[in-house]
Amino acid sequence: MGAIKITLILVVFVTVYLTGSTLGEFSTEDCASLGFIKANLLCSSCDQLKDFSLDQLVEHCKECCHNDESAPKEKKYARAILEVCTCKFPAYPQIQAFVKSDRPAKFPNLQIKYLRGLDPIIKLLDKDGIVKETVAIEKWNTDSVEEFLNTHLIKEEDDDRGFLKTNLI
User: Fold this and answer.
1) Tens of pLDDT, residues 59-73
2) What is the DSSP letter of 86?
3) How many other β-carbons are positioned within 10 Å of the β-carbon of residue 79?
């Protein structure tokens, strides 16, 4: 009976060691059941819960978050293509509002493509024009689309060509 107990303790220890998790840290599934997306949650966000009188969530939030310093940097892309079907605009009024507003003009490296029957998506491309990521945006509002593009697109001033444009004689 003692050998089985020692074996169980050893199995638990090895499992914890190999997964790299500690007993105090929640799994991705635990965090999801609490309403937190572990992969995207920064610990600085947990600290802001107190500002909204949500102190009771801070402890669980801290079990699901990543330190801001170790958080991966957002990837930046040279171009984006927003693909949408105008026949589906009634089903996606927020996407229609974004497309028909002046917001796309803020992104010179954004192209809007109208493809029949397609639900709205954003394709992110590298400098060689190769699609690196595709994101479904059918449930997004206009602010979310703009924020996403601000986060993931290289701005002209970030690009060397922006420097050259401003220094033309």
Assistant:
1) 988 888 888 765 456
2) G
3) 18
pLDDT band at 77 (very low <50, low <70, confident <90, very high): very high
Angle at the Cα of 64 (from 9 to 48), degrees rounded to 5?
Answer: 150
CA dist., res. 58 & res. 15, Å (int): 27
Whole-structure pTM value: 0.53
Mean of the pLDDT values across residues 19-26?
A: 52
Question: Of the candidates 41, 57, 44, 106, which has an alpha carbon nearest to the alpha carbon of residue 80?
Answer: 106
Is the CB of residue 120 less than 8 Å from the CB of residue 145? Answer: no
Other CB atoms within 10 A of residue 7 CB: 10
CB contact at 8 A, 70 and 100: no
Sheet containing 131-136: give its strands across: 110-114, 79-84, 121-125, 131-136
Q: Which two tokens stand for residue 113?
A: 């493509």
CA distance 24 to 137: 35
